[in-house]
Amino acid sequence: MNKNSYILPLYNRLEVGFVKGKKSVLYDEDGKNYIDFASGVGVNSLGYANKKIVKTIKKQASKIVHSSNIYQIKSQEKCAKRIVELSSYDMKCFFCNSGAEANESAIKLARKYGNTKFKNPKYKIITIKNSFHGRTIATLKATAQEDKHKYFAPYPDGFVYANDINEAINMIDDSTVAVMIELILGEGGILMQDIHQVKELEKVLKERKLLLIIDEVQTGVYRSGNFLLSQYFGIKPDIVTLAKGLASGIPIGVMISSLKDIFAFGDHGSTFGGNHLSTTVCNKVLNILEKYSNSGELSENIKYFNSCLQYIINKYPNIFLKKSGFGFMQGLVLKDEMLLNDIINLALKNGVLVLKSGKNIIRFLPPIIINKSEITEGFQRFEDILSKMNKI
Ligand SMILES: *Cc1c(COP(=O)(O)O)cnc(C)c1O
């Protein structure tokens, strides 16, 4: 920890800082290069210095970055239309700046729905153990990891936790308005929910006119190979939240919902949300990713990435238990959780960036546009450290 820093000591930073990047490769101050299997925790969907994105940012910055939501913003309208079309859901958008804000918006929308659409008002939201929904007071309370709640009480009422989807179904009562879930737990262990259980949950909620909120802040924007993982699950949520990969590094979040007439003027808003710069870049990112996905290249590269992970699992059964995850959101489950930080640090030293999830999982979130040669090189560097570990 740097005692002379003027920044509050909230992060356990690794000993490296990057000064530039190209595609899915990063460079530090000494010019050393790193294959990026982390993408800034799922943010840099197009990697680094993408020519089209650089051009889009420059062009838009030279015209107008921000006006305000009290004026018309054409790029925001266009972006909303793109997101809704790609989702294939009949929905409308609210733009904000982060995942937590998108989830906070979802909580507010669900509460207004619960407070206005039933004879006996409903407010309770059920979330799943080891979920992660953000760090604001409400989204922290929605995050079902009670060790994270220790210091910040009191919290708003109305959040309850289920161990799994089946338990969530059983916990629904007269004051429940919604169930909010990640289809793959991102921070909490790269655990994918069972499709049939999620569909059962959807059915039960629909029967009771209650809401299904899907937090796709990490799983969304083609990370799963589909624009939304909800589409792959074949469900129709009432609210979906997105953020991380939407504009490849420019801060943006969005809540999309089929509840089009619950919020009215003044109920909610954002100063920065959906400004000219973020929505113009988001439009470009979505155009590039849609083409990339339609070309078949994305699913091919996901397949290749998976085969590399499978090779690692097969070759190092003494280090790893199994693989978990889906698409470009993958985890290797360690036998010994004590190895987690060691492997991440050794990988960094050997020029490949990986993340952690939960207590014992190496998490892989590469840029969506990562190519075969980058994948090959990254796994070579990763395997290098494993083979050395095996010799110790
Ligand atoms: C990262 C994340 C969030 C929080 O997003 P911020 O932009 O850090 O507020 C919420 N939900 C999930 C699933 C996430 O992965």
Automatic annotation (TrEMBL):
Keyword Nuclease: no
Protein name per UniProt: Acetylornithine aminotransferase
Main enzyme class: transferase
Record bears the keyword Hydrolase: no
Organism: Arcobacter porcinus
PANTHER family reported in the protein's UniProt record: ACETYLORNITHINE AMINOTRANSFERASE, MITOCHONDRIAL, AMINOTRANSFERASE CLASS III
Domain of life: Bacteria
Enzyme Commission identifier(s): 2.6.1.11
InterPro entries linked to this entry: Aminotrans_3, Aminotrans_3_PPA_site, Class-III_PLP-dep_AT, PyrdxlP-dep_Trfase, PyrdxlP-dep_Trfase_major, PyrdxlP-dep_Trfase_small
NCBIfam families: PRK01278.1
The protein's required cofactors: pyridoxal 5'-phosphate
Keyword line: Aminotransferase, Pyridoxal phosphate, Transferase
Family statement drawn from the similarity comment of this UniProt entry: Belongs to the class-III pyridoxal-phosphate-dependent aminotransferase family.
GO molecular function terms attached to this record: N2-acetyl-L-ornithine:2-oxoglutarate 5-aminotransferase activity
